[in-house]
Amino acid sequence: MNVISFLQQTIHLGPEIEADLARIIVREQFPKNHILVRPGQYYRRLMFVEEGLIREHYLSMAGKDTTYRFHTEGSFVTADESFIDNQPSQYTFETLEDSVICSISHTDFEHILRQHPEFEQLHILVMHQLIREMKERITALQFQTATERYESLLKSQPSIFQRVSLGHIASFLGISQETLSRIRSKR
Amino acid sequence: MNVISFLQQTIHLGPEIEADLARIIVREQFPKNHILVRPGQYYRRLMFVEEGLIREHYLSMAGKDTTYRFHTEGSFVTADESFIDNQPSQYTFETLEDSVICSISHTDFEHILRQHPEFEQLHILVMHQLIREMKERITALQFQTATERYESLLKSQPSIFQRVSLGHIASFLGISQETLSRIRSKR
DNA sequence: TTTGCTTTTTGACTTTTGTCAAAGACTCTG
DNA sequence: CAGAGTCTTTGACAAAAGTCAAAAAGCAAA
């Protein structure tokens, strides 16, 4: 799904806006396992996954690699610490598949918002969506068992299991790889 | 801290805006243990805690009561499902202390945003703050041990322990009351 | 197809956390 | 201040999840 078409699902884009966008959006192709953003890096771009899959993960001081979340086609992605707070990212962003990523700079983003206020609507929509997802995630981590979280993921994003290694999924669920393997074997 | 003063820390309010706000803001006093919003209720108001403490919690189908979060003086609070999505709230909001709560309706909020675009700035700021906190919360729940989460809370909000019962804090941390008690006894 | 590499599973054991029940401490009210 | 009620701690045990190590399975390239 193309960014522009994606935007058009939500708001009307006049021809001049479309031209504006086409000028500032950068479309790039990345191979599998490419690191897009590494910890400590300032990355002030808003990304949109057109094809492929990004894994966002965290490296603890103990050196453990924990998946914070997966971003699939059709999602907006930012290194929040950088994009929102102008701080170095704490997380790593890497492609897990060959991916096509469109992105615009923070400056252009602000510019667009100022010039075309109808985008503010969309901006807020995206943040609302994010808040909704995060709230669900928190309650799941807070009071569901590992098995329940596994079942939910299986229901909400079954395709992830075809695309991502179980180790990464386990850390996303907040459990060890072995525990996930055992949960899976019991059915 | 008064809402208006609080707002003035971030944005400039001309005298007419202030008058506008004073007209639509409802200031109410509630006793301890008062239920502000219950599950199933549509509650489309943006609240601001001027004094006191709100506990937001969830009732699982098993009847277990789990604290989603605490809202102390100086925070904006909404029943997200209602305010954002116009759906019934899934969570309960109750005061844990005598509290003073200012609130405005969703309609007035939208109205203010339209009439005084400088509020959009603040609106986004508040959402960014929320996203930041939620992200930290998710990573904590995902890969910290109960003890680490306890230590963090003790550091970030020590006063909570004077104000809230340990049972509520335990469920907020995602552990049983007994586990929390044992963590505390080991120091 | 064989080899080497990565991912996944399994087993044995340890640690962490949960559950249930009871005792103790604390608080508020009459 | 006594007594009821609530909150917190403790003990004994059970369940869930983590760790370490090794085997098995899957995959890709020579």
Short description:
Chain A has 187 residues and is an alpha+beta fold. Chain A is built from nine helices and eight strands.
Write up this protein.
- Two copies of one chain form a homodimer.
- Chain A is of the alpha+beta class and 187 residues long.
- Helices cover 48% and strands 23% of the residues of chain A.
- The first copy, chain A, has a domain at 3-116: Jelly Rolls (Sandwich).
- Chain A has helices spanning 3-8, 15-24, 80-85, 106-115, 118-143, 146-156, 160-163, 166-173, 177-185; strands at 26-30, 35-37, 45-51, 53-59, 65-72, 76-77, 92-95, 99-105.
- In chain A, strands 1-8-3-6 form a four-stranded antiparallel β-sheet. In chain A, strands 2-7-4-5 form a four-stranded antiparallel β-sheet.
- In chain A, a hairpin with a 5-residue loop joins strand 4 and strand 5.
- The mean pLDDT of chain A is 93.
- The A-B interface holds A 58, 60, 64, 66, 68, 80, 84-85, 120, 123-124, 127-128, 130-132, 134-135, 137-139, 141-143, 171-172, 174 and B 58, 60, 64, 66, 68, 80, 84-85, 120, 123-124, 127-128, 130-132, 134-135, 137-139, 141-143, 171-172, 174.
- The first copy, chain A, binds a DNA duplex (30 and 30 nucleotides) through helix 9.
